Amino acid sequence: MNWSIILYDNSDTSCFLVEEVMRTWGEKVLSQIEEVSIDMTGNYKSLVKKISPNAEVTVDRFHVTKMIHEELNQARIEQKIVAKSLNAKKRAKLFDSLKGSKYTLLRAEEKLFEQQKIKLKEVNSAYPLIKIMHSLKEEFDALFEKSKDWGEGTLRLIDWLKKASSYYHKSVKIITRWFAEIIGYFERRTTNGIVEGINHKLKLLKRCGFGLRNFNNIEMRALLFWHFPKSLAH
């Protein structure tokens, strides 16, 4: 397998640099790419269709899950705002239920510690809306983990969208728009996991980057993480 590593000193997330690098691979390589996993930002879908017309585009499932988590957390924040309008006694009780609940709600329920399970029961008891949204979040995670094939995964996602439409307004709209690319996951189980791992290491390098005065030094240090020769950098 051939690898090409793209490292660039630029906060611009446009597709131009990615296209420039991929063009160097040549038409033969680009035409043989079978699948590309992307998130739902930028114009990467259009880029893939333009330079690798034979490739199937799959949306990374973890970016979709992140979107669900963000909407659930936003609902949690909004419930805190609503609680401020209540009398002092009720407000204190509701605030106490939500205190420290963010990661309890976002973490997979089966992985919760005992204290977090108690906190989850408190939140569910105090906030019926959060209880429903949390249940839908768990169901969404499960359909990706447990669906055996494309058909089952597609049907379960359609069912989830129907149930979630009154609660996850933003996420349901985006998932519907990207539906074909999202259900592509159920065919080959392709994700951006490797890329996210690389990003994590680069962020670690950035935090520890005292004394690295120019981009060349950062580039060399990054390549050492994976023992790649500098000739692979672009």
TrEMBL record:
It comes from Heteroscytonema crispum UCFS15. This is Transposase. Residues 20-221 form the Transposase IS204/IS1001/IS1096/IS1165 DDE domain. Pfam families: DDE_Tnp_ISL3.
